[in-house]
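Table 4 source record.
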Amino acid sequence: QLQLMESGGGLVQPGGSLRLSCAGSGFTLDAYAIAWFRQAPGKNRERVSCISNSGGNTVYADSVKGRFTISRDNAKNTVYLQMNSLKPEDTAVYSCAADRRCGAYYGYWGQGTQVTVSS
């Protein structure tokens, strides 16, 4: 069974950093593009970033450019989202998703991890 599992969420003060991890189970992530999404209460889900299967191409939402970095370690079957200079508006449930390319549709999803930015 193909599964994605996120970890690394938590409570952090404004200006702080967190690193989220997305681990694959039951399949190898290196065949897939991996995206990070977030959804805050009362807001639409937003794609934060995506990385191609090779890692050679990345995309970011304007809201996180320069602060977040997506990377992957295919040997560890894991994709990371390094989040720096966090703001209260970054508070959301963050989920990773997989598909063949960084497009509009993703066939596989994790359960999500909560990120709360608050003093």
